[in-house]
Amino acid sequence: MRRPFIAGNWKMYKTVGEAIDLAAGLKESLAAVSTMDLAVCPPSTAVSAVANVLAKSNIGVGVQNMYWEENGAFTGEISPLMVKELAAYVIIGHSERRQFFGETDDTVNRKLKAGLAHGLTPIVCIGESLAQNEAGETVAFVGAQIRGAFAGISEENARKVVLAYEPIWAIGTGRTAMPEDADRIIREAIRDVLRELYNNATAESIRVQYGGSVKPNNMASFIVMPEIDGALVGGASLDVASFTAIVTHAVEALSR
User: Fold this and answer.
1) SS (H, E, C) 56-107
2) What does the alpha-carbon distance between residue 49 and residue 66 come to, in Å, rounded to a whole number?
3) Average pLDDT of span 158-184
4) How far apart, in whole angstroms, are the C-alpha atoms of residue 256 and residue 113?
5) What's the pLDDT tens digit per position in 192-241?
């Protein structure tokens, strides 16, 4: 039984003061949630402050990126040693990192190995472009991303990874995949490939979130899909009422 998991990716929003206010609001509004895992991923400047606010709460803290080396002359980067002092989760391979900052399947694999080696829970993002989707290339492309990310990862470590299926054409656009389509893609492009790489038990144990214009009014339709275990939420996680409503609708939908 996979435990549901909803995480908020705050991207490059929120000053330290704004992040503290948002975290404090979420800590209060989501305090009663016990049936799923929750996390927020602030910008790196605010991670320490948010971690202090959310200490001993039911909301975990993550970072949006990290480098794979423990230390060194890598100006502007943060290492897994730095991350694990403050956070439990790390987003790896988000489409914006791939698009704007040269992230590749190889660097995703290196970061994944580093995160696992230091006891972090990686949230690895995969997803296709609109052109690939319309050309019927989604399963092949996403499957290749899975193979690249998990290269050299043991079965034991693979089970510790969270995946986030985020069709690029749905991120921040207001467009979303149909829940049934997202569910099918997760089954065919993710779980079936994980079965090939490992076995059925491992494929069925790995949590897969959906991401891409997740809102309060569509969360319930995604969370009830058999292959979808939660969401990686972007813009709608930047407001206490909105993120709280997403979590509340998910909890209610799963309790029916």
Assistant:
1) CCCEEEEECCCCCCCCCCCCCCCCHHHHHCCCCEEEECCHHHHHHHCCCHHH
2) 18
3) 89
4) 38
5) 999 999 999 999 999 999 998 899 999 999 999 999 999 999 999 999 99
Spatial separation of the C-alpha atoms in residues 191 and 183, rounded to whole Å: 10
Global confidence as pTM: 0.96
Distance CA(40)–CA(26), nearest Å, equals 10
The single residue listed with the structure tokens 């002092």 is 85
DSSP-based helix, strand, coil % in the chain, nearest 5: 50, 15, 40
Cβ atoms 231, 223 nearer than 8 A: yes
pLDDT band, very low/low/confident/very high, at 177 (cuts 50, 70, 90): confident
Dist CA 143 CA 62 (whole Å): 26
Domains of the chain: 5-255 (3.20.20.70)
Quick one: angle between helices 47-54 and 16-29, nearest 10?
20
User: Catalytic amino acids?
Assistant: 94, 166
